[in-house]
Amino acid sequence: LGACKRHEVDLDRMDLGRVLTSVGLEDEADAALLLDGAGFQEHCRAPFENFIRYVQDEYIGHKFRAVSVHHLVTSLLEQMQAVGQSREAKVYEIEPTIIRPKGEYVRCPRDHRMGAAYVDSVFGADNAGPGSYMLSYTWGYAVGDIVDTLMAFCSSRCLDPKRTYVWMCCLCINQHRVKEAQANGKSIPFEEFEAAFGQRVTGLGHVIAMMSPWNDPAYITRVWCCFEMFTAVEVEKATVSIVMPPRDAENLRATLLHGAGLDAVWQGV
Hints:
By secondary structure, the chain is of the alpha/beta class. It contains 13 helices and eight strands. Helix 3 crosses helix 4 (48-56) and helix 5 (69-82) runs antiparallel to helix 7. It is globular and about 55 Å long. The chain starts with a helix and ends with a helix.
């Protein structure tokens, strides 16, 4: 085990099965659950370190499990680059290329079926943990803008990106189940969405609402975003932070200091 970890060995399911047997896990069903949960399937190989992170992750299946800002800045952007997508790619554009494929061969810790949410397919405290914030945004935002916004949020509050976990619907809702429901012609009642969102706002306690561009935010054109904001304001003790990408913040400052000034701001409002 130590040698595998030290030398960053890549293993397939059969290799790892033998490793588990060697350390005393002889029940095939238990071993299969571990391997499925960590995403080790017959046809793929993965670093042994992935399995170690999975085994040591104490928040697998947590109700408010969320991704770290560090993971978004590093791993997510790297995955996008690997499939030929730039930072300008919209959230809806990476859903079929990055988000859903990530958990395709991982057993969901919630319903125990194959196909997991993105957040349930990344392991270790640097990548995922119990959420403290919920991002309210649109899928039409560029991923790079979202990442930059959250990094600026961490910097302004002296937060460690590796321990700042943000709940995002695209990554934390199981998109495999969403697609299954759509394929079966099923629709989820609004009341169910309302209750689920209210629970998350209450449980997380802090909503980060992303407005971009500053003078014509796409956010306020989306009914669901407006509903999220309404719910966040209505929930007792919930905190709401309005944020924007650094480039938008700089543009706003430049407009106030050197451009049309407050007239442009009032026009935007």
